[in-house]
Write a structure and sequence with these properties.
alpha/beta; single chain; 16 helices; D-Maltodextrin-Binding Protein, domain 2; globular; 5-stranded mixed β-sheet; ABC transporter substrate-binding protein
Length: 340
């Protein structure tokens, strides 16, 4: 069998990735101080979005934390609204990495959601065509979303309220069960589209539309967490040791996205979580994974809670959402351990 230079480089990259994670997991076992977890199986939600990269490289770290069985459960295109989110918590997921806005909707509606940590800052990018140059220009325009209350719908609603638009009346939302919004935008059938990796990478590569908001770079969005780690409330209550271990593993995986982005990208592709290496590498370069030590997750809840109340999507105050649906005790403990 012929082996070319690319095959050798790929093999070397994979070997380096394995050696790196083996070194980390070995060190974790040596540093172990906590009691063993109450359970040894952990079920994580996954989606086609590759911005949740820490989820896709955390399994080895979870193994080192004492979990012998890490199960990934498909949850659709980065969540499909409150109905699917309710079904997730009622069935087979223990932890979920999702955009903060939909998590607040879950808490507001009494779902079994406890927000545990902020993971990374923005990954959404708003693409538009024609003469649209700002969010205010979306008034009277068509915007594609997978479903109402999906992360793009919630995020865009928050954007709209900030510039004085009424998202329920001023924007024409286009939903499609058969055709993805990105395809409608690429075909010129809608005016704007909010994409998450690898969708922005694809649109830029194909020179389709223009970016009018980049949540990783543009204020105020870049000042708050985009994706946050949440656990099933009952799981968190019954299994505090296991939950702490999951939080620690997820934050270590987030650090890996900063320190070893190429290896993380390759591992995502090797395990079938990302379709293309170049898109995975670009996502890890674009998304700020290095802010979890700096940002206060309560600030994120306060900010989005106010925007979503203005949009009429939630009723609770920021203080009530924090009291009912957030628990930072484990995050604070892990921060001390990891130097955060």
């Amino acid at each position: 069998m012929h082996t070319n230079r690319r095959d050798l480089l790929l093999a070397g990259c994979c070997a380096a990735s394995t050696a790196l994670l083996w070194s980390i997991t070995t060190r974790l076992r040596a540093e172990e101080r906590d009691p063993p977890p109450e359970v040894t199986t952990i079920r994580l939600a996954k989606s086609p979005s590759i911005c949740i990269a820490p989820v896709y490289v955390v399994s080895d770290l979870l193994n080192a934390e004492g979990f012998t069985n890490v199960v990934y459960v498909e949850r659709g295109m980065f969540g499909s609204g409150a109905a699917q989110d309710k079904a997730i918590w009622n069935t087979d997921v223990d932890f979920n990495l999702n955009f903060s806005g939909p998590l607040l909707l879950e808490v507001d509606r009494g779902l079994s959601t406890t927000i545990l940590a902020g993971i990374h800052v923005g990954c959404f990018e708003l693409f538009a065509s024609g003469g649209i140059r700002s969010v205010a220009d979306l008034k009277g325009r068509t915007v594609g979303i997978q479903s109402l209350e999906s992360p793009p719908h919630v995020f865009l609603s928050a954007m709209a309220t900030l510039v004085g638009l009424n998202p329920a009346k001023d924007i024409e939302w286009v939903t499609s069960a058969k055709v993805r919004p990105i395809e409608l935008f690429a075909e010129g059938k809608i005016d704007a589209f909010l994409g998450f990796p690898p969708e922005p990478q694809r649109l830029r590569a194909q020179n389709i539309g223009r970016v009018i908001v980049n949540s990783a770079q543009d204020r105020p969005w870049s000042q708050y967490f985009c994706c946050m780690l949440a656990g099933d409330r009952e799981f968190v209550r019954r299994n505090p040791i296991a939950t702490k271990r999951v939080v620690r593993a997820m934050l270590r995986a987030t650090d890996l996205c900063v320190s070893e982005p190429t290896l993380v990208a390759q591992r995502m592709v090797d395990r079938g979580f990302a379709p293309r290496l170049d898109y995975a590498v670009q996502t890890l370069a674009d998304v700020p994974y290095n802010r979890w030590r700096e940002y206060d997750p309560e600030d994120t809840i306060r900010f989005y809670a106010l925007r979503l109340r203005e949009a009429g999507m939630i009723k609770s105050s920021p203080a009530k959402l924090i009291a009912d649906g957030a628990d930072w005790r484990l995050l604070n403990a892990v921060r001390r351990e990891l130097g955060g």
